[in-house]
Amino acid sequence: MSARKTERRTRQSAESRRRILEAAAEIAAERGYEGTSIALVTQRSGLPASSLYWHFGSKDELLAEVIEHSYREWAAKIPAWEPPADGAGDRRERLRSILRQAGRTMVDRPEFMRLGLMLMLERRAVEPAARARFLALRQEVLKAMGEWWTAVLPPGVCAARPALPSQLARLTMAAADGLYAANGTDVDPADIDGLHELLALALDGAAAAVERQESGEG
Question: What is the CA radius of gyration of the chain?
């Protein structure tokens, strides 16, 4: 096979994969995990079921890839939880910047959150690959958040309260989950910035309270 034909087949394969992922993401957003079927995905994508099985193997693996793909696209749009090299800078302002931008991107309700949160609350005899993928991605984010908090907290506080960075990371994620859920019900999108401003204040205030407590001031 010539290099040109190989390149064309590679492009066609990538295009087919993209169409299947997009179709599955749209259907999952409309119908959830259970309501997403191979028949609907093939109909929406215009590709045969054999193409879906070739690329993904099963519906469950397909939806796991939908979550992964959606998450990576979303993560590329927001500031990373990258610890400052020397811990310098205003902690509250750093929090405000990250949370505000993340909140704005969540207004569009990305597929990985819509589908992942539904799956996270379910319990099945056999855990779906899509649920496992979502939980793994959350652990990835929690780890990054924990490292960020470790970098911006005084070393003495982390030594005295080694669980604190992880606790603050979990609190950050839980609050962000709550705001995401509320945005799907009764929150005006125009209020998202203000809510994340308050969240940054609350998280920074909680960290500062522990710092005072450990220093004997609280």
Answer: 21
Quickly count: other Cβ atoms within 10 Å of residue 141's Cβ. 16
- In this structure, is the dihedral angle defined by the CA atoms of residues 152, 154, 157 and 161, taken in order, positive or negative? positive
Residues lower than pLDDT 50 in the chain: none
HSE of 166 in the Cβ direction (CA atoms, 13 Å)? Answer: 5
- CB count in 10 Å sphere of residue 45: 20
Token representation of residue 60: 């469950």
Residue 36 in contact with residue 123, Cβ under 8 Å?
no
The answer to whether 159 and 90 have CB atoms below 8 angstroms apart is: no
- For residue 175, give both structure tokens: 């609050």
Considering only CA atoms, which of 153, 171, 170 is closest in space to residue 162?
153
Q: Please give the pLDDT value at position 29.
A: 82
What is residue 68's predicted lDDT score, i.e. its pLDDT?
93
Q: Judge contact between 40 and 71, C-beta under 8 A.
A: no
Identity at 106, one-letter amino acid code: M
Please tell me the predicted confidence (pLDDT) of residue 127. 84
What is the residue whose two structure tokens read 């958040």?
145
DSSP state, residue 57: S
Nearest to 81 by CA among 144, 23, 170, 165: 144
